[in-house]
Amino acid sequence: MIENKRGFASDNNSGVHPNILEAMSSVNNGHTIAYGDDYYTQEAVSIFKKHFGNHVEVFFVFIGSAANVLGIKAATQPYHAVICPETAHINVDECGAPERFTGCKLLSVATPDGKLTVSLAKKHMHGFGFQHHSQPKVISISQPTELGTLYTPSEIKALADFAHEHNMYLHMDGARIANAAVALNKSFKEFTTDVGVDILSFGGTKNGMMYGEAIVFFNPMLADEFMYTRKQGLQLASKMRYISAQFTAYLSNNQWSETAKHANSMAKLLAKELEEVPQVKITQPVQVNGVFAIVPEHIIEKLQAEYFFYMWDEERSEVRWMTSWDTTEEDIQNFVAKIKELLA
Fold first, then answer.
1. What is the pLDDT of residue 1?
2. Which one of 16, 52, 70, 84 has the fewest beta carbons within 10 angstroms of its own beta carbon?
3. What is the set of domains in the chain, with CATH numbers?
4. Cα separation of 282 and 263, whole Å?
């Protein structure tokens, strides 16, 4: 792997946006109260409330996996179960943390496009009140999905209504929620608050922040005593102002929108350029900043040597290419040129 060269492995690999670095530097003066009892954290929380509603409760943590795990933990007991797509980050990429720290069983569902539906979730909707069976309590979805596809607000509302009818909660993994918002041309509120989401893991790291995620509770009852859960979960930042300052900058002046819009547009440009390469077959709609494609196996290792990226499905020779807030048109053109060269 070549260091310091823009690749297409993950939007986590990109740097920190200059505005975010400036915001962190701006609060790096003097002393302030630790553990979130500071002005900067109060300011950031107030901005979240402007985006999602005054009734929400917001807690900052370091990483997305913690946001998912602790958010779900707030709504469950160890005898509960969580229904999620087979491709969900909590099911594939969190090293068993949801099961270990919540005690809950994950009930995964195969989907063609990463999207869970009411009809697909129904396969696990049984055993209620039966003491030998894990009790379904949370439906968890990702927006956008791990395959880069999007739920419409009406699809999310259908899942939320279904969950609530069965005394369950709807959790949303929003690690790339900004990319979803700009692709849908919707405010955050329109596909969370307004359609019945109960818990949101709100991400910024993949879109230009250095670190820091937020857990947003739309049902304030779920936030009761959550401060203790966060502390036990090793996610209470002492110098929280550095997370809070990032979110204030990120959610102000459309910073989040501009960076996400750029990342999305770079993915669409990549997909468009690949239309000229018949040996590459795109497998999912390119709706946000990810391109999934089947590529001739013999070029993959050579391509990875110059532009690192991950395999998605080795049996199908399917890869995942992610674009970022700092991906350039030149990056795309050079990458496609290399693909053409290797296929020639």
1. 46
2. 16
3. 18-250 (3.40.640.10), 255-343 (3.90.1150.10)
4. 18
